[in-house]
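Progress against Task 2.4 (sequence-to-structure conversion) is shown through the following example record, which the project officer requested during the mid-term review.
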Amino acid sequence: MKQKKKLLILGGGYAGVTLIHALKMKDFDITLVNQTPFHIVQTEIHRLLGGAAHEEDIYFDLEEFCEKKGVSFICDKAILINDKVQKVICEHGRELKYDYLVIATGALSLFPHQIENIHAYSKDIKVAQHLKNLENEFQSLLKSQEKEKNIAIIGGGLTGVEIALEYASRLKKLGISATQCSISLIEQFETLLPGSSKELILETHDACDKAGIKRYHGNFVTKIENNNIYLSNNSSIPFSMVIITIGVICEELHFQSEIQKSNKNQFIVDKHLQVKGFENIFAIGDVAYFETDEGSVLLPTAQNAKQQAKTLAKNLENIVKNKPTLEYKYKHKGTLVDLAKNEAVGDAFGVQFHGNSAYYLKRTVNAMHTRIFK
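Structure tokens generated for the chain above:
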């Protein structure tokens, strides 16, 4: 009987779990390494923070998932890849051998050092314990006797917008007016959702305005101190609670050999998702720096991570069968933005969606992902 190749996957986010689900297990002896015991559905965290979703809706047990798939699971953090002997060294001393290695370790929230004192407020919405802390902080704020409360969200991309709107919906449901607790959404570019279609931007602006959310555009944050956010135009915004959703950066993962990385610690991959310079090492998802034929760099999104995982699953199977591998081609399937109150807006498969239909389409997309854990 032909011996299975050892496939080591680092990271149990969208890319890692989708890859496991897509692979034919007969070809590989697979081990998944993740530093926490669960997968977090990142596209639903705004609903968790606002109380519209529960922990069981967004946290999924990786050990249970792997057991169902016939995959070994190790809860640990990879810290060094010794490519010369094909081993990964983990934080707790484990040394894991591989024939093929897939890096899918995702990304963490970015807290730019240019913003003075930012690390005093660096609760990462991608980290489970920090999410729990933010949930508790929100609950405490609701109960406090503080007058003129203000929740400030720095970063007006998709995540920041959805969190702001979810909070606004929750406050309205609780009968708390915008004068009792306001919400400020701060974006350094001229609009929310920079880079999105004009229609999506306008509808999002309108939704925020109707929800009583204060929008601040066109100035960047310079300092956070003493419950005040200072902007580059010398104005300041007071806050009782702050959430930072400026962007993402990948955690440092060291190689024994020299390796090409982006300025966000992403591994530069070729058209086949191989880490450049290494035939048996691949990177997918947020940690992969992939340049399209047009010269643009793919953004770190769940749909890109899942598509890369599916392509890599085919390529790994082709490699062990000595067949040619496929070039990765990203297909943008659309963007949907939750506006809270069971409404959303966006486009999918070239069609515009609004209101309830958009909201339930987004829930369907999330359900299609989470069903792999059932």
